[in-house]
Amino acid sequence: MGRSIAKKNRCPRGHQNPSPRKKSRSCTYLGRRNYSLYINRIRKEVVPERGISSRTFDIMNTLINNIFERISTQAYSLMCFRNRRTLTPEDIQKAVYLLLPGRLAKYAVAFGSEAVQRYVHS
Question: Are 65 and 33 in contact (CB under 8 A)?
Fold first, then answer.
């Protein structure tokens, strides 16, 4: 009985004591990101004279996080289906094509590929 408790409380990689580091605030947020800065930038480009409420920011942020989570989950399942251990851009593109309808998927993949190319060549 004592052995199972000791195994359960053991740290990974054979370390004896867990590190006494303090948890940062970002770790407790469950990996959700806040895209309000980017939403505001796009809104100013499209309609500079109009405002947006905080509730609308929350809805847009939830929508973006939801789509990101769905795409990442689908890409992971495609990666596992192909018996690979590395997530490739092709997995992400196929996940986008599976989740988004027609032209929206086509534009999303095109803009995403262009953004990756700009990042690589900068």
Answer: yes
CA distances from 120 to 37, 86, 106, 113, 117 (A): 24, 19, 21, 11, 5
> Cα separation of 54 and 34, whole Å?
12
Which amino acid, one-letter code, is at 47? V
User: Per-residue pLDDT tens for 43-97?
Assistant: 999 998 988 888 988 999 999 999 999 999 999 999 999 898 998 888 899 999 9
Residue type, 60: M
Q: Are 109 and 94 in contact (CB under 8 A)?
A: no
Q: What is the pTM of this model?
A: 0.66
| Sign of the four-CA dihedral 82, 88, 90, 92 | positive
